[in-house]
Every structure is written in structure tokens, then in C-alpha cells.
């Protein structure tokens, strides 16, 4: 006690003459001496000796005031960190702004799909109705000849598809005219404008339906083909800029693989739902009776609905901030620094030269990139056979099955609810083929629901990266070939429909996976290069589609359905072989290998660190477009 008293006395020597700060320090020193605790020091060496807040010392020692060595607070004394808030069902992206942009896009996309899926079944119906009404109102003898009428309708459908593809090809060639200033304005401006223009033209097609009596048969056809071409031109522009818009939302380097897969699964699921619901509604509309002496009014009504949904979707897209303006990475440049832009070409010759150069640049980027090059090859093979297969061969094949077995679905038609849906579907212009389209949508829905657990299963077998996962998914997709062979040799309508749905299922997994990789690949590109790539890919695919449509519609129009199905089976087999080779053609062995584990003593990376670079990151690292 005497020593403590002496230390306390020395600590307050001169206290009466000390300044305010010095007096406070001396008083603290005296208090520390009295309680036998050292003063806390701001230095790092003294931090371990500082007393715990709110505690004076251990008074249980024999002296009652002896200092004790301070230790870290017990684990149970630590405040538990708050558990992370569980993500809600609507959280797809961790970034709130990106999540909001995605769901706004989903809203606009859903509105568009409602009209689009009705339009798919309404297009051939409208062409048939316009042809029939034009012949009748001009007192053409072919109106009473069913064979001549059927041949003319088939030719007009092929001409409409060719006009569609040619106009889209022109739109992709002229894309550079619309991309000037895109680094500053983003893809939103021309996405919205092209969709509004397309909506106006589609409304004009619906108006033409009621004006066929004012024109000759040939005049009505040419006006119709002109309107189809104009709306397809706007469609090509819209599809290109929509691809750039979705790349902004889902292709950014900050988006994780899980987020991208979830987003694409949602889009696939929604598209499949509307592909079931919309044809049912279209089937009811298609049954509208004659109006003002014109038959097939339902087709015109469907086109009007389609025009309205496109206009509404455009307004929704206009409200998405993320797809407008410069990219954030571009906006982060130094103050006063401006992006260098090539001067606009002068004159018609300069413009044409610039357009040709843009197509060449886009083609070079695609050809040099392993992943894009492989996708282009597979897309061109698909384009050669898919369009005529869907619009010509399969509908007639299904009609033949129904004719051979008229009672094959009769029992199902009497089931309450289900029977009404099937009757609505079979009332569409594509007849029982609509049921095959619905089964394809069901397959896509199942694929979107199973993609996550199947991904986890394949990861356990060693397919750790997104690139490596394409191997098992492509193997599943290759099963489409044997399933197609079974389908064309199935004698019943229900068997064919079920096998068509299974084909959609096995192909659906790789479709979702490739969408994510495609978005990630384009995510590192400049906006102008993204549009060049999309335009080049689409233009080459369109060239293949035009050739195949012309060959099936005019050169091979007299071949049997059996021969057409054999050709389609060969094409499906070729696609199966390409799919088996695609993972090795698309990605290097290094990119398919999982990244190396960091060393145990390696410091944690900073929060702002980017993913490690590789073949699937960086500049060469979209959403399947709808037509």
C-alpha cells in the first residue's frame, strides 16, 4: 500500500500549476496507479495491455489490487455478426440496379411473347385468308379449284418467308448506320424506335386484309410482301439491338455464372409458358366467322394484337436505364477524355464501303473466336433445315398421321379442360402441329427446371467450369438424332408428339448453357463490335435460310414427305456429330479445366478484384434471337 501511495503522489506532482491537458493526463496517471492498471497507449505494442472496456482489474488476487494479464474476450462474449439476409425469390442478381433492369426486361419480353406466339400460328392463316379473299373478290377461277388454291397458298407462304429473310439480311448489312454514337447512347434508342416502327407496319398488314377488294390479286400480294419485308427490316434492327441490350444486363464481367444461368432459365421458362398459352388463345380467335364477306378475320385480329404488344414492350424497354447511355466502364474514363470515333463516311460510295467494312470486321471477329466460330457453323447447318422442316415438312407429316388414325386423340378430346385446350390448339391454321409446338414448350419448361440440379450432378463428376459443363449437355443434345428417327417411324399422333417433346428437352439444357456463355463472351466487347458480331452471324445464317426455303418451296416441292423426312433425319444426324465435337471445337483444354486452388497462406483478394482472366474472360470471352 505504501508503494502505491508513493506512486500516486508522484503522479500528481505539480497538478495545481498544470494546464488543462496536462492536468487531465496527471489525474489519469494517478487513477491508473491506484487501481494497479497500466495506461492504454495508442501504440501498437501497448494495445494488448489495454484494459477491457468497463472492467477495472482482477480484485481476487491476494493483494486485491494486483494487475492481471489481459486476454482476448471469450468467444461467447463476442457479438455474433448478423446472418446474411436470405435472397428473395425475385433476386436474380446481387446488384440491385441490374436486378431491377432484368425484371423490367422480363416484363417487356413477356408482353412481346404473348403477341409473338400468337403471330407464329397466325402468319400462315393470314396468308391463306388474304390469298383466298383476293381471288374471290376479283372473281378469279382459282378460288373454286382447291388444288390450284393450295398450290398458290404454298407459293405465297414461301415468298413471304423469302421476303422476310431478304429484308432481315438488308437490315443486318445496314446496322452500322444505326450504331453511330452507340457508345454514348447505348442500344436502347434504336431498340425502342425499331420496335415502334415495326408495330406500325404490322398494323398496316392487318389493315391490308380489309382492303384486298380494292386491289388486284397480284397487287394485294405485292403490297403484302412489301409490308412483310418492311416489318422484317425493323425486326432485324430490333433483334440486333435487343441482343446488345441483354448483353449489357447479363453479359457484364461482374455477373456470376449462377446468376446468368438463373436469368436464362427464367427467360426460357417464360417463353415456354407463352408458347403454350398464346396458341390456345389464337385458336379461339381463329374461329371468328366471316366479317363483311371476308373469311379468316382471326388472322387480321392476331396481327393487330401482335402490333399492340410490340408497341407496349417498346415502352417498357424505354424505361430500362441500364441499356441506355455509355457503359459504366466507359463512363469511368478520365475527365475530359473522349472516345475516338471514326468520321462518318461521305456520299453513297463511302457509306457502302463502310457497311461492307463493318460486315468484314464482324466476320473476322467471329472467325477468329473459337466459340463464336463453332456456333456459326452449327447455326448455318440448322438454318439449312430447320425453317422448311418446321413450316413445311412436319405440319404435313402430322396431318398424314391424323388422317391414318383419325381416332388416335379422340378419347383425349373428351377429357374436361384438356379436351378444350386440344380443340383450341387444333383449330389453329397449323392444325395438329400446334400440339407438337406445345410439347416442345413443355420440354423447354422441364429443362429450365432441371438445369440447376443437373449442373450440380455433373460438377460432382468433374465438370467444374461452364466450358466443361457443355460436354455432358452437348451429349444429351445429340440424343435428338435417335429420338427424331423414332418419331418419324411412330405410327401414332400421340407417340410423335411425345417424342418431339423429348427432343426439345434434351436440346433445352445446352440451349440455356450456351446462352450464358454467349452473353459472357460478348460482355467484354465494345457496343459497336457486339452489333457487328450479331449482324455478321445473322447475315450468314439468313443466307442459308433463304437458300433452303427456296429449295424446299420451289425446287423440291414435288418430293414426298417421306423423302423430306429422310433428308431432315440426315441433317439431324450431322447436327448430333457436330454437337459431340462442339465442346472441343469451342474451348481450349485450359479453359475447360477448373482454376487452380489458391495457396493456404495466400492473402484474400480485395473486394473489387475481377475474376482471373482466361479464354472465357476478357475481350474474346447472347440471347438466342427470335424471328
Structure description:
With 627 residues, the chain is mainly α. It has a single domain (96-328, 358-593, 614-620), classed as MFS general substrate transporter like domains (Growth Hormone, Chain: A, Up-down Bundle), CATH 1.20.1250.20. The protein contains 22 helices and no strands. The model is unreliable at 33-78, 330-340 and 598-627 (pLDDT under 50).
In short, what is this structure?
With 627 residues, this protein is mostly helical.
Keywords:
globular; disordered C terminus; 0% strand; 627 residues
SSE topology:
Blueprint: H1 2-11, H2 20-35, H3 96-137, H4 146-173, H5 175-178, H6 182-185, H7 188-209, H8 217-250, H9 257-285, H10 297-317, H11 328-331, H12 347-368, H13 370-404, H14 410-413, H15 418-426, H16 433-460, H17 466-478, H18 480-488, H19 493-523, H20 527-555, H21 561-586, H22 589-592
Helix pairs in contact: 1-2, 3-4, 3-8, 3-9, 3-10, 4-8, 4-20, 7-8, 7-10, 8-19, 8-20, 9-15, 9-16, 9-19, 12-13, 12-20, 13-19, 13-20, 13-21, 16-19, 17-19, 17-21, 18-19, 18-21
Amino acid at each position: 500500500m505504501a508503494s502505491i501511495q508513493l506512486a500516486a503522489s508522484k503522479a500528481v506532482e505539480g497538478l495545481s500549476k498544470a494546464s488543462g491537458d496536462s492536468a487531465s493526463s496527471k489525474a489519469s496517471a494517478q487513477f491508473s496507479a491506484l487501481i494497479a492498471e497500466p495506461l492504454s497507449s495508442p501504440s501498437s505494442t501497448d494495445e494488448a495491455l489495454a484494459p477491457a472496456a468497463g472492467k477495472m482489474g482482477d480484485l481476487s488476487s491476494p493483494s486485491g489490487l494486483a494487475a492481471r494479464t489481459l486476454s482476448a474476450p471469450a468467444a461467447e462474449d463476442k457479438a455474433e455478426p448478423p446472418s446474411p439476409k436470405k435472397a428473395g425469390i425475385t433476386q436474380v442478381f446481387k446488384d440491385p440496379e441490374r436486378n431491377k433492369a432484368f425484371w423490367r426486361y422480363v416484363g417487356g419480353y413477356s408482353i412481346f411473347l404473348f403477341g409473338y406466339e400468337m403471330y407464329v400460328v397466325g402468319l400462315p392463316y393470314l396468308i391463306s385468308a388474304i390469298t383466298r379473299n383476293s381471288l374471290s373478290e376479283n372473281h378469279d377461277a382459282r378460288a373454286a379449284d382447291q388444288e390450284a388454291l393450295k398450290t398458290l397458298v404454298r407459293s405465297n407462304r414461301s415468298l413471304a418467308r423469302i421476303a422476310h429473310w431478304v429484308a432481315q439480311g438488308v437490315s443486318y448489312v445496314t446496322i452500322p448506320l444505326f450504331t453511330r454514337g452507340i457508345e454514348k447512347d447505348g442500344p436502347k434508342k434504336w431498340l425502342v424506335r425499331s420496335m415502334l416502327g415495326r408495330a406500325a407496319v404490322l398494323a398496316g398488314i392487318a389493315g391490308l386484309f380489309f382492303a384486298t377488294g380494292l386491289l388486284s390479286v397480284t397487287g394485294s400480294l405485292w403490297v403484302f410482301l412489301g409490308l412483310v419485308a418492311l416489318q422484317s427490316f425493323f425486326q432485324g434492327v430490333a433483334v440486333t439491338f435487343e441482343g446488345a441490350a441483354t448483353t449489357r444486363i447479363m453479359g457484364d464481367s461482374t455477373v456470376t455464372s449462377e446468376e446468368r444461368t438463373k436469368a436464362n432459365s427464367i427467360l426460357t421458362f417464360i417463353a415456354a409458358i407463352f408458347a403454350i398459352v398464346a396458341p390456345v388463345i389464337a385458336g379461339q380467335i381463329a374461329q371468328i366467322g366471316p366479317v363483311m364477306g371476308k373469311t379468316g378475320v382471326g388472322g387480321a385480329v392476331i396481327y393487330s394484337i401482335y402490333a399492340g404488344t410490340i408497341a407496349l414492350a417498346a415502352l417498357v424497354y424505354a424505361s430500362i436505364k441500364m441499356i441506355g447511355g455509355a457503359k459504366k466502364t466507359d463512363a469511368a474514363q478520365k475527365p475530359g477524355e473522349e472516345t475516338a470515333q471514326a468520321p462518318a463516311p461521305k456520299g453513297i460510295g463511302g457509306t457502302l464501303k463502310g457497311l461492307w467494312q463493318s460486315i468484314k470486321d464482324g466476320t473476322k471477329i467471329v472467325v477468329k473466336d473459337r466459340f463464336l466460330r463453332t456456333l456459326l457453323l452449327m447455326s448455318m447447318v440448322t438454318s439449312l433445315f430447320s425453317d422448311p422442316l418446321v413450316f413445311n415438312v412436319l405440319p404435313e407429316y402430322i396431318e398424314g398421321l391424323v388422317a391414318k388414325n383419325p381416332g388416335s386423340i379422340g378419347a383425349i378430346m373428351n377429357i374436361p379442360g384438356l379436351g378444350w385446350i386440344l380443340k383450341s390448339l387444333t383449330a389453329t391454321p397449323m392444325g395438329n402441329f400446334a400440339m407438337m409446338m406445345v410439347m416442345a414448350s413443355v420440354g423447354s419448361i422441364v429443362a429450365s427446371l432441371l438445369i440447376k440440379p443437373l449442373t450440380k450432378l455433373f460438377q460432382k463428376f468433374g465438370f467444374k467450369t461452364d466450358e466443361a459443363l457443355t460436354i455432358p449437355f452437348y451429349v444429351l443434345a445429340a440424343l435428338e438424332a435417335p429420338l427424331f428417327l423414332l418419331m418419324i417411324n411412330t405410327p401414332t399422333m400421340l407417340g410423335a408428339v411425345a417424342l418431339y417433346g423429348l427432343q426439345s428437352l434434351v436440346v433445352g439444357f445446352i440451349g440455356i448453357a450456351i446462352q450464358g456463355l454467349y452473353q459472357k463472351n460478348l460482355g467484354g466487347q465494345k457496343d459497336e463490335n457486339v452489333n457487328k458480331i450479331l449482324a455478321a452471324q445473322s447475315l450468314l445464317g439468313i443466307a442459308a435460310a433463304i437458300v433452303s426455303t427456296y429449295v424446299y418451296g420451289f425446287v423440291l416441292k414435288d418430293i414426298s414427305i417421306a423423302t423430306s423426312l429422310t433428308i431432315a433425319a440426315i441433317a439431324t444426324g450431322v447436327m448430333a456429330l457436330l454437337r459431340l465435337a462442339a465442346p472441343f471445337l469451342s474451348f481450349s483444354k485450359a479453359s475447360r479445366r477448373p482454376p487452380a486452388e489458391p495457396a493456404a497462406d495466400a492473402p484474400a483478394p480485395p473486394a473489387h478484384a475481377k475474376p482471373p482472366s482466361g479464354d472465357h474472360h476478357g475481350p474474346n470471352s447472347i440471347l438466342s434471337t427470335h424471328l
